[in-house]
Each structure stands twice: as structure tokens, then as C-alpha cells.
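Late entry, written up from scratch paper. The run itself happened at the end of the previous shift, but nothing got recorded in the book at the time, so transcribing now.
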Amino acid sequence: MEGTNPVNKKLAAALSGGAVLVLALTGCTSSSADDKNDALNTWAKQVCDAVQPQAKKIAAANAAIQKETSDNSTPAEVQKTDAQAFQDMSDAYKAIGAAVNKAGAPNVDNGQKKQQDAVKELNDLGASYASLKKQVDGLDTKDQAKFADGLKNIATQLDKLSKTGNDALKNLEEGDVGKAMAQQPSCKSAAGSASATQG
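Output as recorded:
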């Protein structure tokens, strides 16, 4: 059973990179927003309030996988935990995408395109984690070597996922949008819960 742990550690390391995506969505800049742009502040509050519970969900999913790496877990236990974590992440990213979609375009240059690109990216992320969940569900827990190989493949995909896929989010949060989001207590809180999973 110990054979799964080094591989699952790799999985956990790749997953902690995924928390960066949440940080990208929580406007971690600290400059002051322009008070006269009430419409943008309202938009930021709507998005941040929706992001906060989802960021906590993603952080909890990360933590669950991290915990499996420190326990001497059986392949079946690892499979169950990882599958649930990927499902939670998939649901969370889709929910954030829905929230950004519902909020509409922010009141900035190219706001509509930035918003639509970010929604597509979030939905793609949700689909990617749903695909990983299916792959974990399909792993053979009775064959230790095959299970370890399967996890290694998933960790590689996760690693790629954590390094790509948040360009549109960064674009959405450039300039005034980021400043407005940084003012929102719920975004600060979401950023805190996401960064806690990275240490």
C-alpha cells in the first residue's frame, strides 16, 4: 500500500498548483478602487460573493487529497477521495463560471469579451476536472502497479492544467476590475482560503 503514496504526493503537488486558479479569480491586487465606478464595484461584489464558497470548496478538495498523501491509504481509499475532490472542483469551477456569466460584462473596455472568455475558461476547467474524476473512477485499485501508473498519468494532466487555463481570468481582472475585486471582503477571504492550500 505504501507504493501509492509517492505517486499521490505528486498528485497533491500538482493539485496545489490548481489553487493558483482560484487566486487568479480573487483579485489579489491591493491598490484602491475608484469610488466613482459604482457599477464596477457592484459587479465585483456579485462575483466575489459567489466565488467565496466555491474557493472554499476547492481548498477543501485540495486538502482532502493532501491528507490522503500523508495517510497510509489503500488504493481504494485514494480513489474514493480523489474522485470526490475532482467532482467538487468541477462543480466549483462551473459554479464560478455561472456566477461570472450571471454578473454580465464588467464596465471596462472589452468587458464583454473578457467576461465571455473567462466564462468559457471556467467551464472548460470544470469539464477537465470532471474528466479527471472519470479517469480516477476507472483506475484498477486491485493492481497496485497499474493504479500507481494511472495516478501518475492523472498527476501529469493536473500539472498541465495548473500551468495553463487562467489567461482569460487574468485578462478579466486586469486594471479596474482587479482593483474593484481587491476591495471586496469576500474576495480577500476567498484568496486566503485558496492560499492556505499552497503551503
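Residues 27-34 have pLDDT under 50 and may be disordered.
(Scratch paper discarded after transcription.)
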